[in-house]
Amino acid sequence: MKTIIEIFTVLAILICCISAANKIDYSTEKVDYGKMIEEYLQTKKIEPTIVFDNDKRNKINLLEHKFSWRNLEKGIEIIVDGHAFTTSNKMTSNIVWDSGVENVNFANFLQQIKIYKDESIIGFVLINKPCTGLGCSVNYQIIYDLKTKKQTYFGRFRSGFEFELYNFNSDNQTDFLSKTFYGRNAQGIDTTEFVLYSQTQKGDFKKFETEEQKKFWFKHTYTEFQLNLDNDKFEENWIEKINKNGR
After folding, report:
1. Can you tell which superkingdom this protein's organism belongs to (predicted)?
2. Which of 28, 91, 105, 150 is most exposed, with minimal Cβ within 10 Å?
3. In this structure, are strands 65-71 and 59-62 parallel, antiparallel, or unpaired?
4. Segments of 147-212 assigned E as strands
5. Which pLDDT belongs to residue 182?
């Protein structure tokens, strides 16, 4: 009887040892922060009513709105339902990259229009065409409020060409997420900072702040194309916890 008990005891110890050896240590698993950010933003994104990708036209009707645009010596003139405005000498609200805010004069082609009917907002994406070198990584976004005709300008460098609106605060205020590229270091590692802007009662977009905090942001450090997650780093001072992985 004693022998049988001893045998079962040894077997139990062996099984425990095997289970411990095969157990995955998730605490050291690499986190794909780029994917984490993308999945988080998807849950906050406001879907546009209609999207138009420019097919080289300079005049189009979308829903009940009429659009036309033309190149100027500096910038572009855009007409929305008879109201004209130009991008000439307009400055971005955000820091685009290390050099600071940028003049939108560089843009000479309207690439995309998005209409958000419920929010009474139109989004424009502008680029330079044909582009060369670093200019191919630059684009600008204009948020146009249909009620007040206010425009807010943003710019991006090496951080995507999409235009998106969000609802981060559940406060009935439409939000925009600016991106600032802080350069590539000697090891080929990039850093992009995301900053929260919200629509004001005047129709324009300002950096969201509270009495306790003047800037809400998160920052992603990564290797280009995220080929090496060893270099991935995520920092946040945001309105809620994004990184729930604990590392």
Report:
1. Bacteria
2. 28
3. antiparallel
4. 151-157, 165-166, 175-184, 189-199, 205-207
5. 86
Alpha carbon 6 to chain centroid distance? 62
**Dist. CA 53–CA 40, nearest whole Å:** 25
Q: How far apart are CA 12 and CA 213, in angstroms?
A: 56
User: Do 182 and 156 meet the contact criterion of CB atoms below 8 Å apart?
Assistant: no
Q: How far apart are CA 16 and CA 11, in angstroms?
A: 9
- Which residues of the chain fall below pLDDT 70? 1-28, 185-187, 224-229, 246-247
DSSP code of residue 225: G
Question: What is the pLDDT at residue 47?
Answer: 97
Tallying the residues shown for the chain, one arrives at 247
Amino acid at 157: F
Contact 187, 153 (CB under 8 A): no
Question: Tens digit of pLDDT for each residue in 162-181?
Answer: 999 999 988 889 999 999 99
- Show the tokens assigned to 112: 């995309």
Phi/psi of residue 133, nearest 5 degrees? 55, -135
Distance (Å, whole) CA 54 – CA 71: 14
pLDDT of residue 27: 47
